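Final report, closing paragraph on structural work. Over the funding period we assembled a curated collection of sequence-structure pairs, and we close with a single example.
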Amino acid sequence: MSNISINGFKYDDLDSNGFRGTTLIQGENPDIVLILDRSGSSTNEFFGSVSVGNQNSTKDFLSNSILDAEIAAAKSFLSSLIDQGFGASRLALVSFADDASIDFNGQADDITFNSYSFNIAAENLEADGGTNFNDPLAKAETILKDWGSDQGNVIFLSDGEPNSGSLDGTSEFRSLDDLGYNVQAFGVGDGAARRKLNA
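Its predicted structure, as stored:
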């Protein structure tokens, strides 16, 4: 029998089956902050196996951009939450470029004009500016603390690496981690900085 080694990303293998654990969120009724990168480079084309179309058609005329892919992923994530029975979970959407904004803060299944309020907020994102990792993570911490969350989750998507502001987000990540929050980071597009996202 040959030896098997695992290289690359650090990951949890809680059931010791040799595969990365697939649980994205923690908690019986999880609190979640989803962070999306809307920096200028997210207007670049998304080279995925499936075209995602124009998800923010009221904001730009681009189709199948990296930001479109992020928005499509966010909407798919919401559908998954609701399908799993987490419609009552507290959910926030934070987007960032040079600075961050809180675009949605409510309950996952909140409805506005017969559509999910979260999806409407995501569809209103527009790309512009640089990439600041620290500000959105700080906003996520503020939201989770305001909620009094003891089962908080932060899901962070970016297409690049920090080039705006003086911090790369690692100190803010440590603060979130020290508070016991579950933080997951994902790269979208071929310009995503694996080293920075891993850090």
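The CA atoms of residues 2 and 87 lie 46 Å apart. The chain has a mean pLDDT of 86. We thank the funder for supporting this effort.
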